[in-house]
Amino acid sequence: MPNIAVFIEQRDGKFKKVAWQMLSEAKRITAASGGEVWALCLGADASGEAARYGADKVFNAGGESFATYNSELWSTATAQFCSTHKPEVLLVGSTAMGKDLGPKVAAKLDCACISDAVGLTWADGWTVRRPIYAGKCSIEVEPLTDMAVVGIRPNAFVLEENAAAAAAEAFSPDLSGVDPKAQVQSIEAVGAGDVELTEAEIVVSGGRGIKGPESYELIEKLAAALGAAAGASRAIVDAGWVDYSHQVGQTGKTVGPNLYIACGISGAIQHLAGMSSSKCIVAINKDANAPIFKAADYGIVGDLFQIVPPLTEEVIKLRG
Ligand SMILES: Cc1cc2nc3c(=O)[nH]c(=O)nc-3n(C[C@H](O)[C@H](O)[C@H](O)COP(=O)(O)OP(=O)(O)OC[C@H]3O[C@@H](n4cnc5c(N)ncnc54)[C@H](O)[C@@H]3O)c2cc1C
Q1: Domain ranges, residue 82
Q2: What pTM was estimated for this model as a whole?
Q3: How far apart are CA 43 and CA 39, in angstroms?
Q4: What domain count does the chain have?
Q5: How far away, in angstroms, is 234 Cα from ligand 1 center?
């Protein structure tokens, strides 16, 4: 009967979608195996949302120490939580924050730490699946310690509402012995526009078919009209046409929007690895045999320069 703790990541009170995806998966596991799902949130009250995605208990810790992310304070608090409550596993998002926090917590607890996981199963012990060699293979790892910290890739798990009567429990970590060696002064957001790629409900991506950096504007305009994030294939990131923060795929970001529009992207396996869990995929490509059409729900065979601008105009008209 595994008890699963999920670290609910937030910045400025805005929660990361990966937290709800991890809760959804944790609920699926405990529904089959027994045990409870615990949500741990530092610096904000996640009670409402955490209950919506299946948390049985919610532990919120507030106060000045959690106003902005600090490795030493946050990892100490999280490790204290795990030492006290002893979950069988702690899930953290494989985000910038989670990749910093997870290994520090594992080091403090002297337990296994498995990063970048895309699958998790319980059968009297954990089996964690994670891709290796840039996604060419995947391996299954079994932690050998009683507890493990597992980093979960954003959008690896399907979001599912699963209302539970979550009980809020007090959690007041003792941070008196912690003397932080560094403090975040400010955070400067760079990247994929107003909507963050991994959080976006709609993503419009461009590939080498856009021909040059100046045409990425077509992608950005359609994305702006749809309230979407703008993504890119690695080909145009490597070519220096757009910043790496836009890259979708094996070595970029994994996205899981309701709608993914791929413009001038061939559909290489490494690109598909980052977007194939999208609910609806639309591909625009002038080559009817492009592999992207095998992954697409809707395909438009044609020149994106003829298709994207009128499509953008229609979207603007429709959305007023
Ligand atoms: C280890 C490794 C990791 C990788 N990681 C990633 C990754 O994270 N993300 C990623 O994307 N790739 C990744 N790649 C690269 C990947 O293999 C492909 O090379 C890349 O995805 C191709 O990008 P593309 O589809 O934009 O370009 P291309 O494969 O060149 O495809 C361009 C497409 O545009 C179409 N086209 C051309 N002109 C038009 C037009 N006017 N209108 C409509 N369509 C048009 C063409 O028919 C073609 O299908 C990785 C590769 C390796 C080896």
Answers
A1: 4-170
A2: 0.79
A3: 13
A4: 2
A5: 7
